[in-house]
Amino acid sequence: LPYRDGFEVLEWIRAQPALSDLRVVMLTGSGESRDRQRALELGARAYLVKPASIDDVRRLLDSLGHRAASRPASPPGPAPG
C-alpha cells in the first residue's frame, strides 16, 4: 500500500461501526509470526502469505465458511425488508 500499511488499514476498518462485521483476510509477503499475531489481534480473520496458490485460497475460503466457486455473483441491490 502506498501511504498506509495493512495494519493501519485494518485498524481503521475496525474503528468504523458500519464495518464491524467485515471479514478481513490479510494477504501479505511477511511470514513473520509477530506480524501474523498482530493482524489476528487487530481483528483479521485470517493471514495468508504470498505467494499463495489457488488451493491455499480455496482452503482459506472453505475454512471461513465460503463457497466462492459455487456462489454466483449478484449485483448489489436494495436490502430485503
- Most strands sheet: 2 strands, parallel
How many individual helices?
Answer: 3
- Strand order across the biggest sheet? 1-2
Low-pLDDT ranges = none
Order of helices and strands: HEHEH
Radius of gyration: 15 Å
Distance between the termini: 38 Å
Helical fraction equals: 25-40%
Give the structural class: alpha+beta
How many E-type strands?
Answer: 2
Shape: globular
Describe the structure.
The chain is α+β, with helices and mostly antiparallel strands and 81 residues long. It contains three helices and two strands. The protein has helices spanning 6-15, 33-41, 54-63; strands at residues 25-28, 46-49. A two-stranded parallel ribbon has the order 1-2. The longest helix has 10 residues, at 6-15. It is globular, with a radius of gyration of 15 Å. The mean pLDDT is 84.
Itemize the secondary structure elements and their pairings.
Blueprint: H1 6-15, E1 25-28, H2 33-41, E2 46-49, H3 54-63
Parallel strand pairs: 1-2
Short descriptors:
single chain; 81 residues; alpha+beta; two-stranded parallel sheet; 3 helices; 10% strand
Give a brief description.
It contains three helices and two strands; from the N terminus they run H-E-H-E-H. With about 80 residues, it is an alpha+beta fold. It is globular.
